[in-house]
Amino acid sequence: MKYPIGIQSFDQIIEDGYVYIDKTDLIYQLVKGGKIYFLSRPRRFGKSLLVSTLKCYFQGRKELFKGLAIDRLETEWAEY
């Protein structure tokens, strides 16, 4: 198992086969909730990885999410 120490890019983590804890169902709920959110987290707590994951999601890069929870939830995969 390869751990993504210091890697903050979702696409690099997935493409290079690093361990990824799947929280994409929460991202789907966040996006589809239709509210304004302020994302506050302590230092070194995954903000950059979350933003990178959202970027790939909004780019419609479905191939990166294959096998993750959001793959079965999302049906449109539009690029924004």
Strand/helix succession:
HHHH
Number of helices: 4
Number of beta strands = 0
Q: Helical amount among residues, as a percent range? A: 40-55%
3D shape: globular
Distance between the termini: 34 Å
Largest sheet: none
Give unreliable regions as ranges.
none
The quaternary organization reads as: single chain
Helix vs. strand class: mainly alpha
How large a portion of the residues is in β-strands, by DSSP E? Answer: under 5%
Rounded radius of gyration (Å): 13 Å
Can you give the mean pLDDT? 92
Description:
With 80 residues, the protein is an all-alpha fold. Helix content is 40%, strand content 0%. The chain contains four helices and no strands. The chain has helices at 10-15, 24-32, 47-58, 69-73.
Structure, briefly:
The chain is an all-alpha fold. It has helices spanning 10-15, 24-32, 47-58, 69-73. The longest helix is centred in the middle third of the chain and has 12 residues, at 47-58.
List the helices and strands and how they pair.
Elements: H1 10-15, H2 24-32, H3 47-58, H4 69-73
Labels describing this entry:
mainly alpha, 80 residues
